[in-house]
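Researcher: Please translate sequence to structure tokens.
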Amino acid sequence: MVRQDVRCFPTSSAGRLFDAAAAVLGFTREITYEGQAAIRLEQLARAGDSDEPYDMALSLADPRPPTPDPFVLDPVPLIAQLVHDRLNGVDLSTIARRFHATLAQWFAALAERLLDEEHLSCVALSGGVFQNALLLDFIADRLAPRAELLINETVPVNDGGIALGQAVLAIHA
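Model: Translation complete:
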């Protein structure tokens, strides 16, 4: 289906990466609530023994024409490495933890790039994926020495926060 581009849709959601990684690591049961696969993956990763990200070049450019977007991450090499490790018997918790470390490396590198290019001093981390405390800790370890981290405390990081933001914009439009 991927080779034929059948029912393959671009997404900006990091949650889909967690779904894919969870499936590669064996979570293939029916999803009964939002974030279930990602929660399972985080639980698995907590038992892992390596905080080392996968050794992969960080590709920030979308190779698809007509306009490459420098802020699009290509997850294909990461998923390929997960599959490779799974087929070679690497412990599932180690794969899951390295997956988290790799995403944290990517997100931190992207944030660092924006901090430099835009001369910023703080980074806001929001979205459903940041309900994942392990991922948040990995990113904070990299970014906290360099920038103030803004993290949701009273507003939900997931769709509830988006809905609140949309309501505020509607009021002021």
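Researcher: Any highlights?
Model: The first strand starts at residue 122 and ends at 125.
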